[in-house]
Sequence to fold (462 residues):
Amino acid sequence: MKIKDIMIRDVTSVLATCKLVDLIGILSRHKITGLPVVNNNQEIVGFISLHDIIRATLPNYLGIINSDSILSEFIQLSKSLKEYSQRPVEEFMGKNIITIDEDENEVLASDLLIRNKIQRLPVLRNGKLAGIVTLTDICRVLMENNENKE
Amino acid sequence: MIGTVTLNPAIDVILEVSNLKINQYNKVLNAYTTSGGKGINVSKAVRACGKETIAIGFLGGGRGRMIEEELRGLGITTNFWHIEEKTRSNTIISDKKTGEHTLLSETGPEVTDYDLEMLKSIFYRVMSQCSVVTLSGSLPRGVPINIYSDLISIAKERGVKTILNASGEQFINGLEKKPFLAKPDLRESNEVFGIRINKEEDAIQAAKQIIQRGAEVGVVSLQNEKDIIATRDEIWFAETTCHKIVNLIGAGDALVAGLAISLTEEENKLEEAIKFSMACALASALREEEEFSSREEVEKCLQYVIVKRMYK
Fold:
């Protein structure tokens, strides 16, 4: 099975110069939590997720997980978001990008997703963004294939 | 890859009735929804023929997300800009007894200057993946009439061939930037450049005007089953010999899809491109369902299309 037959055919993305406030607007309207960052030729230069934003705006982010209350951190988050709202996405995005070609298969995609502990894998066609594949998409197709065999 | 722009998409609600009576109780026999808008229809027709396509434009709210889901399910790539207001809906009453279709079309949502700026940015980026782009349909509120001319300029800068299929002032304005191919949408007024398109001579005159204004190919439809195609040196006449048409909704968009496909297949000569696009339109018009035809179905329709060079 080829990735192009499984992937979500959406190339919604942002430029590295996109302001944080605009990025949050896009994530909110699309009801998603992360996006590829591209240049003007649709080549991927990074990936930005809410996780990256929270990590940047709350330096003691990992500590919150084990704390009893997030109230004080929430106030800090609110202040930081306001302060960073006009800053470009490139300051927060992950630059170590893992991608897959649309002609590769689901085994390689699963391996990349699991080994790198990532949620979404940008899919490329001729080096340009062609879609996104997630572990959920792969599992769904595998389940459908199993049902068809039975 | 073929790009399509739909600035004012819609959710089409199709209600099937038998013998619609105005001002009376009518029972709906069947109801279903599908995504609509001229550019989206072009993408659907292109994809049905097995070609890669990407749909761009404005969407909003839950209706917008429904459209995206449907398009992706069909294998169409999406890159819409989501606006604050929700996408409009069109209601199509399909009378199974009389064969008549009644379209009730909502005005589109309001688009802001910021939305326009973001759409142009998306368009610029996506053009790096396209060889042809179609610009079709009406404009939502807040979008200036020169939007198509702006997009044509961007596409040209990126070396992408453009097909303009719009009506009224948007069409005339778009022509100023000299699209590769232009076809007026005559559904609302049957008139372009002040010429009412009633007979062959009117269509020829209008097609010639399109060329004089800078397009390389001008296409003018005549009485649903005929087309006049003009270039700088030639005038072509195309018509179908099959008259079993059951559904004209989307046939014009299928024609545009056929032209776009032909432009991506460089070995195609103009005569073949005209024939293929007419076959796309015919295959769509022969279907009762709101779906577009496969390449195989289109190729079967080629036998019913006559293309003649009229004069140089």
In short: The longest helix of chain B spans residues 270-285. The radius of gyration of chain B is 19 Å. Chain B touches chain A at residues 54, 65, 68, 71-72, 75-80, 82, 121, 124-126, 128-129 (CB under 8 Å). Residues 190 and 197 of chain B are 6 Å apart (CA to CA).
